[in-house]
Every structure is written in C-alpha cells, then in structure tokens.
Amino acid sequence: MKVSKKINIYIVSGFLGSGKTTLLNHLLKQFNKEKNVVIENEFGKINIDATLINGAFENVFELTNGCICCSINNQLLETLSRIVSLENQPDNLFIETTGIADAGEIAANFTSLYISEAFDLKKIITVVDAENLLFYKDSNVEVAKQIVAADCVVINKSTLVKTEIIESIKDFIKSINPYTTIVLSENGSLDPISLATENKQKKLNPFTIYKSENVHKIKTILYETDDVFNVQKLKYELFRHLYLYYHQIYRIKGYVLTKENQVVLVQTVGKSIVIELADNQDKNQGQLVFIGKELELKTIERILKPAVAKTEKPQLV
After folding, report:
1. What is the 8-class DSSP label of residue 27?
2. What are the DSSP calls for 125-186, one per residue?
3. What angle do CA 183, 94, 278 make, to 5 degrees?
4. How far apart are CA 7 and CA 229, in angstroms?
C-alpha cells in the first residue's frame, strides 16, 4: 500500500446528533482547493447522512450495516486499499464515524506499518452537543471514549446553553483528556488553524489504550413506509414522544412523504426536532432511522400512526 505521497486522514467522531456531518461539510468547503474523499459510516441499513454531505470531494465511500470500529473493520481496510489504488490520489481522507463508534479503535488501524505507509493520521476530531452532552455522558460509555481519543473536541451549539453549562462541559472534557484542544462552535464550523496545530495527546500504545471489547447496546431500526404524513401532526407526535421517552430515543433521521406530494427531511436530537423540505431528493417511499435503547418496530408504528394523513375514499357515482 506504499505511495509516493501520504494521504492525510481526519477522523470525525461524536455521539448521535452532535453535528458531525455539519462539521464535515464545513471542512470540505475549507479544503475545496484540494482533492478530498470521504468515508461515511452509518450503523443502519441505509446511510441518511451520505445524502447530506456537500462541498468539494471526489468520492464518498459508504460503509453501512455495521459500526466501523468493530463489525466492519475488514470493510474499512478494503476501502482504504481502493482509495490508494485510485488513479488520481486524494490529498485528504475524511472519515465520519457512526455516533457510537470508538474513534480510538479506528485510529489504531493507522498505526500498522502497512497502513501507515500510505496514510498519515492528522487529527481525531470529536464533536459534542452542548445541549445534551451532560445528560448522555453517564449512560453511554461511547461519549467518554470518543473524547479520550480526540486531538480536538468541538463543543457544538455552544450559544444555545448558558456559560456555566459550557464550563461544566469543559471541566468534564479536561478531566478525561487534559491533552485535547477544546474549540467552541455555534454551527459546527472549525477553523483550519485548529487542524494545523500540533497534537498534544501523549504518544501511548494505541493497542493498550484504544483496544476495546465493548459491545454497543444501542439499537437501530429502519422504518420504511408508503404512507404520506401531515407534517404538523408528525412534528407534534415526535415532540410528545421525545419528551416522554428521551432516555430511550436518541436520534431520528430520514425522509418522509407529505400529503402535498413533497419530500421532507426529519431529524431529531434529544428533544429538538427539525422538519424541512428536502431539496433534490426524489423519494417514492418514506425511510426513517430510529436510534436508541429498547426500541421496537411496533412502538415506532404506534408513534407515527396518528400523523399519517387520511386519504379520501373515492366517491361512488
């Protein structure tokens, strides 16, 4: 896998809904004069986030149906081989992990002699959600693991919370990773200077620090439907159930069809809901990915059923 010029690697991690794809889009725009490729990993069967990537890139390689740090590690290595064999070698490879991935486990791949001949791991960037981090950190070990591995932690949506909350988040980050660089961000942006600074992380053996036998307890369910929805009712039902079951439903994302024959993008993080018109998306079926704990398909059907638009029966002549 040896090449004349190494490909720079930037790993973007962060818990569910922290804003990884938004940050990735900012980075791609900032590196728009260079050749970029992207590896997009999603835990479910379909990759909603891949449709949301924009900016300057040559290729997007999708790894689905598993988490990049465990069940599809071999697929990652195969993809890296494909990238090295590209006729036009990229300058940068951006890897966006799943929301539950162990970034250190992924980084360990790039310490092997075979991989390190072709790739240069520049930064592990972990995005945290200022509104939800303090709630998730104690119930999900993945949050701490992502921060421990990070060279740079971006506190996203920082203007939406009080100053004392930001200070508590900083204290938590420093308590488990005193060597990382902490950056505040309003909308997922990251100054390229932060990427150019030298990493302060101690050079420890990645196989003793990063290797983990942790099995993710978070469940992903893909809900596909031919139904059309009343957007206002859908927003109400999602808000109501997220308020009641916020400790179980971490993330909802995907597309649904409306009674006005439109395609809308649905995204939730914590108790926040965004439903907006999806530009350039031609869908003939709704697809929603639910991510959380103890999720069941019948529960999802019950949540969405009241928001299904009633279709009028044809009148008999």
Report:
1. H
2. EEEEETTTHHHHTTT-HHHHHHHHH-SEEEEETGGGS-HHHHHHHHHHHHHH-TTSEEEE-S
3. 90
4. 45
Q: Describe the crossing of helices 141-149 and 163-176 by its angle, rounded to 10 degrees.
A: 70
Considering the entire predicted model, what is its pTM?
A: 0.72
Q: What is the mean pLDDT of each run of 10 residues along the chain (317 residues)?
A: 76 90 89 89 56 56 58 71 87 89 80 82 94 84 88 94 96 92 89 78 43 57 91 92 80 89 87 84 85 85 90 45
> Please, what are the domains in the chain?
7-209 (3.40.50.300), 219-307 (3.30.1220.10)
Instruction: Give the angle 47-209-92 at the CA atoms, nearest 5°.
Output: 45
Cβ atoms 16, 100 nearer than 8 A: yes
Dihedral of CA atoms 111, 115, 118, 124 in degrees, nearest 10, equals -50
First-last CA distance in the chain:
72
Element (H, E) at 234: helix 231-244
Nearest to 69 by CA among 172, 139, 145, 18: 145
